[in-house]
Amino acid sequence: MRPAPWIAVVALPLAGCAGVQSALDPAGDEAATIGDIWHLMLGVCGFMFALTMLFLAWAIVRGRRAREADAEARHEPALSLALHGWIALVVAGLAVLAIASFLVDRRLLAPATDVLRVRVTGMQWWWRVEYPSDDPGRTLVTANELHLPVDRTSEIELRTEDVIHSLWIPNLAGKLDLVPGRVNTLRVTPRRIGGFRGQCAEFCGLDHAWMALDVRVESADAFEAWRQRHLAPAKPPLSAGEREGAQLFVQKPCVMCHAIRGSDAAASTGPDLTHFASRATLGAGARPLTREALAMWLADPNRIKPGVHMPAVPMTAAERDRLVDYLMSLE
Fold first, then answer.
1. Largest CA-CA distance found in the chain, in angstroms, rounded
2. What mean pLDDT is predicted for residues 270-283?
3. Please, are residues 232 and 328 in contact by the beta-carbon 8 Å criterion?
4. Where are the domains of the chain?
5. Do domains 116-230 and 240-327 have the same CATH topology?
6. pLDDT recorded at residue 14
7. pTM
8. Facing residues of 158 across strands?
């Protein structure tokens, strides 16, 4: 049985308001608070707009009747009273929005306890994510993925090493800029387990559109299990192909930009690859992570992400296959 046409008219807009990158589908306290004031602003401004259209229609009809009657302009007390009432209504609406905005800001900046500290650094064009610890050996470093525990506040320190970026995870919080030489803090309190998408919301160069952040909200136990697993060094290569790929990694220019804990690679120019194969995407969301996409990336990164700073490393097809074997074993 085919659904009635009106169902599609209602369902399509509602579907567009949901999803993993929608501010109208809040999954955290901060996003819900921002959503509340958004709905208030929509209601107040929508009411004002409707009144404006009604008054405009009334003025047009009244003007036509006046011209037809060839009436002379004259003072009308009712019209003057309506104008003063309209001014008062506008002032009241603006006052409501100003007070609500003030209260929302206070709520967003209220102190929190038992917070998780995370550091996110914007790069052209990817995200370095760190979970700092008083013990440097327990600091977890990853790239382009942010894992957060549900029902716990996280304070995310935002930094940049090049230009201005802006982190926006619509389902969880508002956007906040990453400014060179300054540390900004974004507070996030997730209330729903699931996957969400963050994005750079400030034009930062050629690959700005391909600068996504995979956000995973998990239970406290699942988050701690992920953290412990990713604190471990990369597992040693097992097969002959993986061992050959590991040797190629340190022999080729790869070692000059990337780090793999447990190996001789310790550079920080590019993303940390210790647990590379556990990620969902390649190139900060440019492609799903598959063997085929990785092989294409190694052959010519600019083919997948035009403008990326990673150069094409000269190697044979056989060497590329071995390097793919090794990188895909880093789970």
1. 98
2. 93
3. no
4. 15-108, 116-230, 240-327
5. yes
6. 52
7. 0.83
8. 120, 184
